Amino acid sequence: MSDIHTPRIEELLPAYALGALEGEELRELEEHLAGGCEECGRQLALWQGDLEELAAAVPPVEPSEITRARVLRLTGAAAAAPAPMPAVAPRRTSSWRMAAAASALLALALWGLLGQVRMEREVQRLESDRERLRRQVEVLSRQVGSMRTEVLQAKQDLQVLAGPGVQAVTLAGLGPSPGAKGRTYVNPSTHDALFYAFDLPALPADKTYQLWFIADGKPVPAGVFAVDPRGTASLRVQQVADVARIQAWAVTVEPRGGLPQPTGAMVLKGA
Amino acid sequence: MDERETEDRDLMSRVAARDGTAFARLFEVHGSTALGLLLRILGRRSEAEEVLQEVFLQVWMQADRYDEVRSTPRGWILMLARSRALDRLRRRDSARRREEAAGEEAGEAIPPVGTERLETLERKRQVTSALGALSPDQRRCIELAFYEGLTHTQIAERLEAPLGTVKSRILLGMNKLRQALSAPS
Question: Which of A53, A71, A77 is closest, CB to CB, to B21?
Fold first, then answer.
């Protein structure tokens, strides 16, 4: 029976300690050890002690710094750990080491805290910069949009002016604004016209300037406009009558929004 | 119990109480021996260093399971290392391992000079001398079991020797080892 200590059972112990035992012998010995055989327990400890000596007899190899740092990081002891030292280092240094470890950890914690404060300030600064840049981008986008519109308009104006056979008409000031001037350019092939006014006085809010062309003896409304502080204005007119049918151009002062027929004073006229 | 073992036991109880400084010291004292053993078993430096990290992680996590009646702290750490290395080895193709071990990393296990206690060095000489007292066959069988984790049957297959012969070589070899280690140095 396996619970009886026998020389044969005892002979299985070295191979068991080595891990070489298997099968029925392994099962038999484990059963015996589980039975609490003190002698076998004692002998097994001796065999294991021998194997420990065998294991410790290998040439030692210093772990790399990477391994060392990783292992010590397991406990957060990396900052506190001293450089590799001989195993003969005297033990009385341990309290010094603990003090050094505590100081190092404290320094690390303070450094971390300062780092965090610096980081938060940096984040605030970057957020403020981002907001400022966002506003600049908005302003620039609007400027670009506005310039694009102006370029498009200039291009269309140029198409009117650059067409063959463009007819130009000069308008002169009348009545209340004798010094005012005006000019129209009509493209006969596209029936588009451009009108420019200079030195016209600003009008009250309930009044507006209205442009007309006279075709076949009748005034045809060509658009309303206001002047800028310098007294100038421009207007683009589409679908004007054939050049041959237009006898004259005129500007009157009309109620705000304009009227289908002229009613107010004429301030510019040209033919 | 020698001075080394007394300090080790003190360190182990402090590590069990989550003392990082004691853990660092334990690694400083036994890391290089454990790595030497891992390199002896695995043959590859990078893998041995990786397993060393696993071993000491286990030491840190399971220090409270260490039983001082059953083994010394050094014995516990080295047997953890051996066990993990053998697990790793079993997962590997042994033929490929031998080829690679013979190539790139041979001869890296250089013992540091002057970093060990004289008594430790003396004990190592005694172990080396004890191993020298074994017959080459006995020594080979013990090494295959210890460093490669092979069982009786596997050793017999590897050496193409009868099973009974392998068993008796191991038994005789281990007894010779015991005698040599017990002899006064």
Answer: A77
Domain A167-270 classification at class level = mainly beta
For chain A, what is the mean pLDDT?
Answer: 84
**Strand ranges, E, within chain A:** 167-173, 181-187, 192-198, 207-215, 218-225, 233-237, 246-255, 266-270
Tokens 């914690």 belong to which residue? A109
Choose the closest CB to A91 out of B7, B24, B120: B7
Report pTM.
0.53
Closest residue in chain B to residue A98, using alpha carbons only: B21
- Say if CB B155 and CB B137 are below 8 A apart: no
Q: Is the pLDDT of residue B106 over 60?
A: no
For A70, other C-beta atoms within 10 Å of its C-beta total 18
pLDDT of residue B91: 83
B1-105: what CATH class? mainly alpha
Rounded to two decimals, the ipTM of the complex is 0.82
CA distance A123 to chain B (A): 35
Give mean pLDDT, residues A23-43: 91
